[in-house]
């Protein structure tokens, strides 16, 4: 099969998927009881090579590595929430160090972080109206802290990848620009999440072009634009948006994002790393394996493998 985008062959990128198709890690009540073993087996069945870590995964690194290895999967990333902007540097750094140690044991390379100081996304309040706007001082605390833990990751030959996120102080393309300007490009890399940028009202292709050399990790997440508009106009919370179906996968005809130009931009920039499918959907209404196979089929069509 011929690729429709350049330079993103299996020698350059790995394809992953997050467990948020099977359950929600932010809102544990969005769950129909799918166990860890079924989740990772279906990931492998759908044709993925790895996955991020969810709250149902084994906490023992050897047990996790064995369970994933049995299915031909690797860890694409763990997640670390940071709280630098509210002065919680000590706890943030210690938690980051623990996750680095865990990542080293399971054989991963990328560690994903997002600043959750004063975040609105976990609260039952309008996600747009109440997302934090950082002061210059808070931006300083954040960028200084990220530079510090990014250096810790680099010292272990790992990569800190920053995840811009709805309901946080780094939500929009303008926020991403400021974060990139204020951090060390050798130690703080960008995780491009297509869905979160489109949800925020920005074009992920523009950010991909602007920061293509800083992008070291990618979440391929789609959105249903009518639901995005409803979340904004009806002042819905992030959780309400998820339950309304704001997110879906690449390849879903209901999705609003054209992924080919984004992937082409990455390929032309020499991107190497993970392309991770993500869609925080309610598994009671969006059958996880169906959507995982839909996304993998789309990537086969676009990437040629």
What does this structure look like?
It contains 11 helices and 11 strands. It has a single domain (13-303), classed as Alpha-Beta Barrel (TIM Barrel). By secondary structure, the protein is α/β, with parallel strands linked by helices. The protein has helices at residues 36-46, 61-70, 89-106, 136-155, 173-182, 194-200, 204-210, 225-233, 238-244, 259-268, 288-303, and strands at residues 13-17, 50-52, 74-77, 79-82, 110-115, 159-163, 188-193, 215-220, 222-223, 247-248, 273-277.
Number of helices: 11
* Domain module count: 1
State the name of the first-level CATH class: Alpha Beta
Beta-strand fraction estimate: 15-25%
Taking the sheet with the most strands, its summary is: 9 strands, parallel
User: From the helix content, strand content and strand pairing, which structural class follows?
Assistant: alpha/beta
Determine Rg (CA atoms, Å).
18 Å
Per the principal axes of the C-alpha atoms, what is the gross shape? globular
Instruction: Please state the second-level CATH architecture.
Output: Alpha-Beta Barrel
Strand order, sheet with most strands: 3-2-1-11-8-7-6-5-4
Tell me the CATH topology. TIM Barrel
Q: Say which CATH homologous superfamily is assigned.
A: Divalent-metal-dependent TIM barrel enzymes
Count the strands? 11
Order of helices and strands: EHEHEEHEHEHEHHEEHHEHEH
- What's the N-to-C terminus distance? 7 Å
Unreliable stretches: none
Mean pLDDT: 98
Percent helix range? 40-55%
């Amino acid at each position: 099969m011929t690729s429709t985008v350049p330079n993103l062959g299996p020698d350059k990128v790995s394809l992953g998927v997050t467990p948020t198709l099977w359950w929600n890690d932010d809102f544990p009540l969005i769950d129909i009881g799918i166990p860890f073993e079924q989740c990772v087996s279906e990931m492998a069945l759908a044709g993925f090579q790895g996955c991020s870590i969810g709250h149902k995964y084994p906490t023992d690194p050897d047990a996790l590595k064995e369970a994933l290895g049995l299915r031909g999967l690797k860890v694409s990333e763990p997640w670390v929430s940071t709280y630098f902007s509210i002065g919680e540097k000590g706890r943030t750094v210690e938690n980051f160090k623990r996750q680095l140690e865990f990542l080293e044991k399971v054989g991963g390379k990328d560690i994903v972080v997002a600043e959750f100081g004063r975040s609105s996304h976990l609260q039952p309040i309008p996600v747009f109206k109440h997302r934090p706007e950082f002061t210059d001082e808070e931006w300083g605390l954040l960028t200084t802290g990220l530079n510090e833990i990014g250096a810790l990751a680099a010292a272990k030959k790992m990569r800190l990848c920053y995840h811009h996120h709805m309901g946080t102080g780094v939500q929009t393309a303008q926020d991403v620009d400021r974060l990139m300007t204020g951090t060390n490009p050798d130690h703080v890399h960008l995780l491009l999440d297509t869905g979160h940028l489109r949800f925020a009202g920005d074009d992920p292709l523009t950010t991909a072009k602007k920061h293509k050399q800083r992008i070291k990790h990618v979440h391929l997440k789609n959105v249903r634009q009518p639901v995005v508009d409803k979340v904004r106009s009806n002042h819905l919370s992030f959780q309400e948006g998820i339950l309304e179906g704001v997110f879906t996968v690449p390849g879903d005809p209901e999705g609003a994002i054209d992924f080919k130009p984004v992937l082409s931009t990455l390929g032309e920039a020499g991107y190497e790393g993970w392309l991770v499918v993500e869609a925080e959907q309610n598994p009671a209404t969006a059958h996880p394996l169906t959507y995982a196979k839909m996304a993998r089929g789309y990537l086969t069509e676009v990437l040629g493998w």
